[in-house]
Amino acid sequence: MHRTPLLAAALAAAVLVAGCSDKPAATSTPAPSAASAAEKPKIDYAAWTKGTSTPVKDPLYPAHGNAALDVLHYDLKLSWAPSTKILTGEATLQIRPAADAASIDLDFKPFTLDKVAVDGTAVPDAKVTAERLVVPVPVTKDNPVTLTVGYHGKPATTPMPSHRSDAEPLGLTITKEGGLYTMQEPFGAFTWYPANDQPSDKALYDIAVTVPAGWSAIAAGTPATQQGTTFSYHSADPMASYLQTLAVGKYKKATATGPRGIPLTYWYRDKTDARMLPSLKKSPKFLTFLEKRFGPFPFPSGGIVLVDSPSGMETQQMITMGREVTKFDAAAFEEDLLHEYAHQWFGDAVTPTDWNDLWLNEGWATYAQFLWDQELYHLSDQALEDYLRRYDAKYRKTLGPPAHPKAANFAESNVYMCPAAMLKELNDALGDAKFFALAKAWVQTQKGSQQTRASFTAFVNKQTGKDFTKLINTWLDSKTTPKP
User: Fold this and answer.
1) What contacts 69, CB < 8 A, 6 or more positions away?
2) What is the CATH number of the domain that holds 319?
3) Are 367 and 276 members of one domain?
4) What is the Cα–Cα distance from 231 to 78, expressed in whole angstroms?
5) Secondary element (H or E) of residue 256
6) Would you tell me how many other CB atoms lie within 10 Å of the CB of residue 479?
7) What is the mean pLDDT of each run of 10 residues along the chain (484 residues)?
8) Do 324 and 370 fall within a single domain?
């Protein structure tokens, strides 16, 4: 998730103390809609089977998302006009209803609706109210439909439910130069396209963004061939909406190759960005470190885009990193990059089903970050143990245990430090060989899925042949730091 400057600063202190798209073919049975059977387009929804999810209502943010809908695929055609600050879009969604419903309801920031259609039939009484797009067309469980929404307007953000020092409004943000960028965890994708904006609904994506000459558009996914000033991206691996991104600006591009030939792309703009380029170019080193411990990088490409933000985000295949820092600290920035790259395994490839289990993302990424620091600064196991326990106690006291986050305190330090301390205990109990075999197996066998605390615990016990339920539960639930 967004990087936490506190972690880098705190660890530095600890080190000192320690002395150290393919287009689908046509054939299928479309869902019921206002059109007659003869008028409905024949679409092979099997082309998007990989985007199938089992949505659930999120316990922390129940106003977002719709557990009755499973979006299989988003096809977004966007155009950005910096001079007028108007975003024009056409979103085509292939949706599998997860339950019978009287309407199609999605998260969407109020834009002017230009057209709405279901299975090719116009729905003139569709409307956006209170950040919900309501399309009054009944749907039947497991009978997929295609929703098309044309819209335009000036993007607006939504508040972030957090007290973090780097908290900022979420969603599509307009920059001073007239560009765009996003930060959208736990939600915010709905500020620029109609979305089932919750982690339990992962989908496939195709995005094409047209910008003026001299400008570039960057999104999550694998870059396709640029056509004129239209930039396209394809995600063949399912993605939660919070992991999508969009950045538009007068960017320059640098390319590199990571381990096993992974193509990497770095997007930067002016001199402020250029000072960070040497750190971006260390990406192959970061990925080599992570692959050794967690297995192959789980996507066909990777990269980083720099944006006007104080934070950072593990957006899938294209990390979104903020450049708004008063004084650039290369070591801290690189630590953040390592953290966000670790999320490609933990959070992106394997995603939590709901926001109560954010610790599954942040605990692993934070522990990976500390393993990097331990190697870089020659930090002893005991020094790391002492550091983790000290900060674990602090954050449990002020924020509570990591498995019971508060809705108003999204992604604050307890869901980073406390589960990282738990993973350190698990690592100590298993030894490096068995621990990293467990980590590799977790990612490589669960890739593309959504997981929960219960499924993680069951996986650990089965993989190791030992019962670690008590250890995991104690570290996740205790109000105080568990005893050694």
Assistant:
1) 55, 95, 96, 97, 98, 101, 104, 105, 106, 196, 201
2) 3.30.2010.30
3) no
4) 10
5) strand 252-257
6) 9
7) 47 38 36 44 90 97 98 98 98 98 97 97 96 98 98 98 96 97 98 98 98 98 96 98 98 97 97 93 98 98 97 97 85 96 98 98 98 96 96 97 97 98 98 98 96 98 98 98 94
8) no
